[in-house]
Amino acid sequence: MTVRKLAWTAVWLAGWSLVVPGHLCGTVWAEEARAVDIHLGPQGELRGVYVDETGRGQAGVPIEIRHQLRPVARCVTGVDGEFCVTGLRGGLYQVVGPNAATAARLWAAGTAPPQAAERLTVAAQTDLVRGQRPFAEIITNPLVIGAVIAAAIAIPIAVHNSGKDRTGS
Q: Over the stretch 57-89, which tens digit does the pLDDT of each residue have?
């Protein structure tokens, strides 16, 4: 086996943990974002509540409703974190608050599927990391540890066997 093949094998093994699905390494990932089906009231009312990590309603929180990335309505939550926006039509919306965003498929009165909810819950998240895995998680991954050990064994052997090392041995 040539040094080049061993080097590429070591690189491939080191990068493996970055592309292998997290569930194979025992990583628990947040559920993918899915739109929540919500009934609109007769006047196009969207009712909801903004809660913190413990599930308690948060008062005085600004809420923005977006349709196709454009703001269409704004409001502020009441005493128990509840909010109500009127004049909306059916469609896919994003409900945004500080530290939270929820996709909602709004249905006009009488058109919602049976599983649609009467109100939307927007939950704040304080520890949100997008598109990154913590360094400690990567270096403690068994596949990375195995790749490092394999590289530490294979590379010196390959260099020795190639006969082209600079030490003259």
A: 999 999 999 998 899 999 999 999 999 999 999
69 with 16, same domain: the answer is: no
DSSP output for 79-114: TTSEEEE-S--SEEEEEEETTEEEEEEEE-TTT--T
12 and 71 co-located in one domain: no
Structure tokens given for 135: 């360094």
Q: Assess if residue 169 is contained within a domain.
A: no
Instruction: Please tell me the pTM assigned to this model.
Output: 0.56
State residue 16 phi and psi, 5-degree precision: -55, -40
Residue 65 sits in which domain range? 36-123
In a 10 Å sphere around its CB, with 0-12 CB exposed, 13-18 middle and 19+ buried, how is residue 50 labelled? Answer: buried
In a domain? residue 20: yes
What is the token pair recorded at 6?
A: 């061993």
